Please model this.
Amino acid sequence: MDCKIVGNGSADIIHEIEKLKLDKKEIENRISKLEAQLKADEAVQMKANQACSSYDSILDGHAVSSNGLTPGMIYRYSRHLLLPDFGVEGQINLAKSSILVVGAGGLGSPVVLYLASCGIGCIGIVDSDIVELNNLHRQIIHPEAYVGHAKVKSAAAACRAINSSINLVEHNQALQASNALDIVSKYDIVVDATDNLPSRYMISDCCVVMNKPLISGAALGLEGQLTVYHHKGGPCYRCLFPTPPPTAACQRCSDSGVLGVVPGVIGCLQALEAIKVASGIGETLSGRMLIFDALSSRIRIVKLRGRSLQCFACGDHADFTQQSFQSFDYEGFTQSPMSDKARPKLSLISDSARITSREYKDLIDRQEPHILVDVRPAHHFKITAIPESINIPLSALEDQISLVDSYLKEVAKDSGKSASLYVVCRRGNDSQRAVDFLSKNGFPLAKDIIGGLESWAQDVDPSFPIY
Amino acid sequence: MQLTLEFGGGLDLLCQSVKIHHVDVTPNVENGKLTLRDLLSWVRTSLIKERPEMFMKGDSVRPGILVLVNDCDWELCGGHDTELEEKDVVVFISTLHGG
Ligand SMILES: [Zn+2]
Model:
């Protein structure tokens, strides 16, 4: 008996040792993989910290013709060289220039692709976002395989696949007043392909204090706008817009939608303007603005005011230095956040007038007589909705308040009990506004669902579509 | 006075989602003239159907709106005092920030 136990015991021990050895090997593998990754990241970081010395590294020891181009460059860019207005000189200017693209999204995608293809010597890409599936309809640089990965990594990989001869610098961080001087200083030209107001003021100011031309594009819905700021004596963003607009006028693609090709069109035109500034050909949009209306296929080019002598940033008596730039509070100035993720949560009504999505699910299960009013716009309601909910958009609530009463009465009649009133929206902000209005207009017991349909999808029904 | 007014960058939402308006605006009775200042108050009362604060601030347009007369920034042609002429095209455009 004892012997058998010992025998079994040593077999167990041997088995245990083998298992631990395997584990050890696996851990060692993981360590060396992580070390390699760390090294690679450090190399990328080091490159990001260096100035963008483009031309010499492109040549990289290749024999150069008397015109300054290598045979490989002559073949690759031959269709550029054949343009009489562009030619060898234009191409060498591109190879010698460095461009920073801020934002690798809908605008930045075509910008970066074209700048890489056309042989800009050094391209920096700055963005802190990761690729999400609902980006791909417009952010054409990113493939499905990169969903969940950093946008700069995805964009740089796409550029490398197109043109391995140029320098690409990955700035996997958000551009902010604290790091912008450092990053922008390494480039000749800046492209604003961001999606928010504080970044637009910040990038324009940075380009003024660092004296860099800025190619600025924007797109929303079915419209786009494009101009060149702080170039050859032209105006900066603040010359045009000394005071920021009210926050209610600042729409985002994640709220208002955008037709994918619209930022694509504007991004292509931004790439064109950047190429013109870099190569020194043609007449840029400095002092003019291109306005694109996709729905009516109309492009309007308007003449803008010149540089303002009173401009806070670039005016003759402006006292705006690198130091004042770094300490300027852009989010405070514009009253809006740089990141879409940092969306402020409204807190308008008391907690007693709110329930969680789980509590709402419980009262459905208890078959509590009630109605659920969904106050999103009608075209949102068509995307997805909680079954049995009634759509009365917030903007129509005042006119249609009698509907609420009749729906409540109907449910009360059918159930023989009084019916309660719940309100839902996409994220739980408009529902509060609705409850606030309802409580002051004859429905004091109205409650809203905290976090809206997003929390319903997250906490109650994982199969509920989010958008 | 026959004018064409265009609203862009989302401002069309304030006037029943119509972008282009062909309008007939009566000039000042005293001098027979029509300035941009006059036109702004006419637009405010005749075209803007909701959220007027999204269009006006005080007696001017709110920050973030460009006013263009015949494709030219109103700052270049006299601002509020710009005198309009028959068949002028006036564009009101809200700056976009998305991307
Ligand atoms: Zn300025």
About this structure: The beta strands of chain B are 2-8, 20-24, 56-57, 60-61, 65-69, 89-94. The interface with chain A takes residues 8-10, 19, 51, 53-54, 62-66, 68, 71-73, 75-76, 91, 93-99 of chain B (CB under 8 Å). The two ends of chain B are 39 Å apart (CA to CA).
